[in-house]
């Protein structure tokens, strides 16, 4: 197991789970996230058992979006608070979701200015940044579009242990606008990455990896109640 320090400013790691799995600390992940880096976030193995690449929407450049598209399914979502999406008049896609995990998909959208078709990495990154930009208004977005907003439940991971809530909580913990960009990591053969795959990917690309379970424990410990 890697050193679990941290007196010298190095990343902390810890063991979690019956197999002694190694994950990075939530504190280190928050620091990296605030600096505009991706963080790999994995959920419980008895849930989706998948990992998402997560970045703050306000930090999502064209280059970051291209990286996300390359290593994910290309199905890019933008989790945000319910209030922000209400302000933008991006309501639930359907009134009665039959999705297994009750993912709260809102109406898709594109930013209207400085974009073309909406599908390029540039256009999608700009749309996500503008969802996070409080000066952007409902008139700034075309509907439907190529970015799928997701409505975060109030209370975040304390009330729903999904990637939607984990990504918005990371934004809040990092002192950023509560809107993120996420995509599910996928292998070259088309299968979704599981925990071991995600760990290998994170190491290859120098990214930190945390679990939603650890984020719940972190919030419980630090009493983040928003």
UniProtKB/TrEMBL annotation:
Record pathway: Cofactor biosynthesis; riboflavin biosynthesis; 2-hydroxy-3-oxobutyl phosphate from D-ribulose 5-phosphate: step 1/1
Q: Which UniProt keywords apply?
A: Glutathionylation, Lyase, Magnesium, Manganese, Metal-binding, Riboflavin biosynthesis
Under the cellular component aspect of Gene Ontology, which terms does the record hold? cytosol; mitochondrial intermembrane space
Matches recorded under Pfam families:
DHBP_synthase (PF00926)
**This protein's record includes keyword Signal:** no
EC numbers listed for it are 4.1.99.12
Q: What cofactor is needed?
A: Mg(2+); Mn(2+)
A GO molecular function annotation here is: metal ion binding
Listed under catalytic activity are: D-ribulose 5-phosphate = (2S)-2-hydroxy-3-oxobutyl phosphate + formate + H(+)
InterPro entries recorded for this chain? DHBP_synth_RibB-like_a/b_dom (IPR017945), DHBP_synthase_RibB (IPR000422)
Superkingdom of the organism of origin: Eukaryota
Q: Provide the top EC class.
A: lyase
Q: What Gene Ontology terms for biological process does this UniProt record contain?
A: riboflavin biosynthetic process
Cofactor annotation comment: Binds 2 divalent metal cations per subunit. Magnesium or manganese.
What does the annotation say about its assembly with partners?
Homodimer.
User: Of which family is this protein a member?
Assistant: Belongs to the DHBP synthase family.
| NCBIfam families, A to Z | ribB
Q: Report the function annotation for this chain.
A: Catalyzes the conversion of D-ribulose 5-phosphate to formate and 3,4-dihydroxy-2-butanone 4-phosphate.
Instruction: Return the protein name.
Output: 3,4-dihydroxy-2-butanone 4-phosphate synthase
Q: What organism does this protein naturally occur in?
A: Olpidium bornovanus
């Amino acid at each position: 197991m890697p050193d679990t320090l941290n007196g010298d400013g190095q990343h902390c790691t810890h063991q979690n789970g019956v197999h002694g799995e190694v994950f990075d600390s939530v504190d280190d992940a928050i620091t990296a996230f605030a600096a505009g880096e991706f963080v790999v976030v994995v959920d419980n193995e008895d849930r989706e058992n998948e990992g998402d690449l997560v970045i703050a929407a306000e930090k999502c450049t064209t280059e970051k979006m291209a990286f996300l598209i390359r290593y994910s399914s290309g199905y890019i979502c933008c989790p945000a608070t319910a209030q922000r999406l209400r302000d933008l008049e991006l309501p639930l896609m359907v009134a009665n979701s039959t999705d297994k995990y009750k993912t709260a998909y809102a109406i898709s959208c594109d930013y209207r200015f400085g974009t073309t078709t909406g599908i390029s990495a540039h256009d999608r990154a700009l749309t996500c940044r503008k969802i996070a930009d409080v000066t952007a208004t409902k008139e700034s977005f075309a509907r439907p579009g190529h970015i799928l907003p997701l409505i975060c439940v109030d209370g975040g991971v304390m009330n729903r242990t999904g990637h939607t809530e984990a990504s918005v909580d990371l934004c809040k913990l990092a002192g950023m606008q509560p809107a993120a960009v996420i995509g599910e990591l996928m292998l070259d053969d088309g299968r979704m990455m599981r925990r071991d795959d995600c760990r290998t990917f994170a190491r290859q690309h120098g990214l930190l990896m945390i679990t939603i379970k650890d984020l719940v424990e972190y919030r419980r410990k630090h009493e983040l109640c928003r």
